[in-house]
Amino acid sequence: MSLEEYKKALKSANRRSSLPFLEEDVSSLSTVYLGVSEIPVSMIRGTFTDTRSSAFSDNWMPMLDEGSEFAYKWSRLYDSQIEEGLRDPITVYEYKRSFYVVEGNKRVSVMSYLQAPVIMADVTRIIPQKEDTDSCRLYEEYTAFQKCTGIWNILFTIRGGYEKLAAEAGMDLEHPWPMDLARNLQGAFFRFSQICSEISKRKAKVNVSDAFLLYFSIFTLDSLLDRDRRTLRSRTERIWNEFTRQSSSLSETPVSSKRSPLGLSWIIPQYSERHPLKISFLYEGDSMLDSWAADHETGRMYINKRFEGIVTADSGLCSKETLNKAAGTHDLVITTSKNLLKDTLAAAADHPETMFLNFSAPLESHVIRTYFGRTYEPLYLTGILAALLTKKDYILYRHGSYQPETVSSLNAFAAGVSMIRPDIKVVLYEGDDTAKMLDAYPADLAFLYQPKNDAVLPGLYRITGGNYQSLSTVIWNWPVFYEKIISDYLYEGERGGTEDLQAGYWLGLSSGVIDLRLSDSLHPNIHRTVEFFRNGVIDQQLNPFRGPLKDQSGSIAVAADKNLTARQIISMNWLLENIIGNLPENLVYRSDLL
Description:
Layout (H helix, E strand, L loop, with lengths): L1 H10 L19 E10 L3 E4 L21 H15 L6 E6 L2 E6 L1 H9 L4 E9 L7 H16 L11 H8 L10 H21 L8 H11 L2 H6 L2 H15 L33 E7 L7 H16 L4 E7 L2 H10 L2 E4 L5 H10 L4 E5 L9 E5 L2 H14 L4 E5 L5 H17 L4 E5 L4 H7 L2 E6 L10 E6 L2 E10 L1 H14 L13 E3 L6 E5 L5 H15 L10 E2 L5 E3 L7 H5 L8 E2 L14
Parallel strand pairs: 2-4, 3-5, 6-7, 6-8, 8-9, 9-10, 10-16, 11-12, 11-13, 12-20
Antiparallel strand pairs: 1-5, 3-4, 13-14, 14-15, 15-17, 18-19
Helix pairs in contact: 1-2, 2-3, 4-5, 5-7, 6-9, 10-16, 11-12, 13-14, 13-17
C-alpha cells in the first residue's frame, strides 16, 4: 500500500525544478540553538546542502525511481507515520524566516505528501549579518516575536507589524506571552489562513499575515475563534477589498499621500470592533415619507452592513438640537441636504472635535466638508441625447431654483446640445409655465431639473399633447457614494485640499456615484451612442467646458483648447450663447456663504 503512495507522490513531483538548498555561504555567521519545536511544513524551504536536492522536486515530492532503495525507505516512513506517527524530530537551520533541513529530508517529503501542517524539528538559528536595512529590522522584529510567542508562521512584510500585533494583544516583544494567548493567536491565524486560501482562488492574492494584522486591528481575536465560518468569510472578503486598495479616488484631483510605503498607517484603520466609527445621518425630511431622505437611508443601511463591526450609523431628523446632540456622541455627522448647510456650519464651529459632512456643492470651508456629484457630467450627456432626439429648433429647460451647481449643469446641457446640433436653442424657464413656453418656443423635449411634482424625476422628457414621456433620468447611487466616503474616512485619514477646492468630495461618472439612466423605449443605437460619449467623459477625452466657448454676449468665455478649473465651474455666473434666458441677479455663490 505504501509503495502505491510513493508512486502517487512520484507523479505529483515537479520534475522541472529540484529542491532548493541554502546557496549562501553562512559558515562565518554565528548561530543560536533554539531547541525542539513544532514548525510549519510550509516554511521548510529546502535542504541545507545540495547533496539531497536532486532527490526531491521543489514541492518536496520524491523524484527517484520506485524500485530504488530511496523509494523503499520513503515507503517505510510513510507506514510509520500512518501507524504511529514519526517520533524523531528532523534537524533544521532557520535562516531569514525559512527552514533548511540538515537531517530528515524524507520525513519532510512524507509529511508534505500527507499535507501535514507541522512537524517536530530540532532548530538552530543562523543569525544574518546585521545591516541597516528594512529587511534586517523586520527580521529582528520577527525573532523577538517568535521568542515571546513560539509562533513561527506569522510573516509580515511590513516593518512595525509585529509591534502592532503585540500592542493589539496588549503585550510587547520583550516578555513571554501567556501560553493560552499564544495558542489562541496561533489558532486564530490558522483559521484565518484557511478562509484566505478559499478566497484567494477567485481574488487577487495577498500576504495572509499582513491581511491577518489588518483583520486583528479591526475585529477581536475572539471573533476569529468563536464566530461562524460564514461571518468570518464575509468579514475577510471585506478586509481583502480594503487590503488591496491602492489609493482613494474620491477627490476630483489626486491627493498626494504623506505616508511612508514602509509604514503601517496605509493599512491599519483607527477604528475597530472595539472602537467603532460612530456616524449620525440627519435628514431634512422623514425617511418614511420623503423620497430624498429614503434614498440616503438606503445608503446608511448599506454601510452598516458593508462595514459591520467597525461602523455604527444611526439616523434622524435634523434640527439645531439634534445636530448638537449628535456632535457630542458621534465621530462623524452627515447632513443630507444643502438646506441644512448653515445649521451644519454653526454646529461644526461649536464642536471642532467632530467631523461634519454636508451634501452640497464644493464649499470653501475649514470647519466642514461637503460631498456632491459632478452633475454637469450626466447633464452634458443629456444635452447630447436631446439633440439626437429632437425634431424641433428649441429644447426647454426648467431649472426649478437657482444654485451655483445648477448653472454649470445648465451650461453643460447646452454644450451637449451644441456639440450635436449647433443650431438648436435651449430655452430656460422656471415654474409651471411649460404650456406657455411651448406656444412661444415650439419644442418636443424638455429637461426638468427640479420638478415640482415628486412623482416626476429630474430628467429629459418628450412632450406630446400635454403628456410627458421619460427619456432619461439622472440617478444617484448612495450605497456606492457612502461606501467611498466611509472607506476614505476609515483607511485614508485626514484628506488635504486640492489645487482648486478645499477638502471635500465632488465625484462624477467615473466613480459610479452619479449616472444617467436611459429609457428602455429608446432605440439600441441611441443607447450605444450615448454610451460612447459617456466613456469619453469618464476617460477624460470629452470635457463640456473645453474651449472655445462663447457666452450670451458673444464674448469668449473659455479660450480655445483650454479647460475650466473646478473653481471656475463652481463659480459660473454666465450662460452659453445657445441659451435663451437669464440668470437672476441675486444668485448666491459658494464663496459668499461664509
